[in-house]
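As a warm-up, study this chain.
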Amino acid sequence: MTPLANKDPLRVGVLFSQTGVTSRIGRSQLQGTLLGIEEVNDGGGVDGREVIPVVYDAQSDPRVYAALAEKLIVEDRVNTIFGCYMSSSRKAVIPIIERWNKLLFYPTLYEGFEFSHNLIYTGAAPNQNSVQLAEYMTANFGARAYLIGSDYIYPWESNRIMKELIQQRPDSELLGERYVKLDAGEHDFKTLIEDIKAKKPDFIFSTVVGDSTACLYQAYADAGFDPQRMPIASLTTSEAEISQMQPGTAAGHFTAAPYFQSIKSDVNQRCLERFRRRFGSDVMPNLCWEAAYFQIHLFANAFRQAGSDEINLLMPYLLGSEFHAPQGRVRIDASNHHTCLYPRVGRVGADGQFTIMREATRPVFPDPYLVTHSLGDWTVKLHNRIDDLPAER
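Now compare it with the structure written out below.
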């Protein structure tokens, strides 16, 4: 490689949805990515090379994701893409990434049961959120559950996992499992709310995504349900979705995630301050924003060691690498390309922020196939910060 080539800008693909039904979370992932890139460039780039993001809007459509991934590789000549939110979009992009032997960083929680040599998964696997949420909800509210999701692969598979987890409780009962279209409005939840009112589950498990999330929570509130008695528990309701709701609508409900804005660490607070100075307050940081941010630094650190973004040269330095992220010190596991993360369970307050009720004391190894994990196994001891909910049953 010539000295001139070493100074050439390094182009990377950035593929998130800035329009469509998942644009709120997509824009947050985009801004987290851009923050990470700006920090790398402000620090001198990678080996003196400025990182240039080639950004496209995937429009919340898996077909557009696939077409733009091909365009990034063939026309824009990038070796690495940071992108995708819904599992359907990831599934659409994987064959293209593998065919061209390029690298995709995927910063979103997902249903697990997948591996690709061409992917790095920085969002939570099921043993880093589903297991914790199932244990927390069944222990504190009961094991009679009603499942609602958007109609695509992630909710189907996530609900399957949740059913298997809660059915480990002897008093478990599945009272309903319903799916709504991706662009569902509040009226689409009417019959579901009536069914829930009749069946009175202990909690509702939601894998509704995108703009429809606000519609579900508003329909719940309009029905007069009490989150102290029958809360919504979710893996996909973050600060971003809550920001689309009327103030207080989500208060009292629960989400399991590795990251919440409310984490009281210097690293997190400094990162949030930098982000708001640069981008303002239009985008709401959340678990997918944080993963999109820290994966840029993992990539840049590996590149500095490899001297290249060719996947075969980069991957040995990427696997096993660590970074002090806002959630804690994360590490890419060399055996399965997933990331060691910090499970947390949070309860939404009136201000739309999460009070962390339980959190891992050290990172949890990713087990995407749930080989060794079951209900009641949090892998590490969790700090219990709950003092005002029903006693564990």
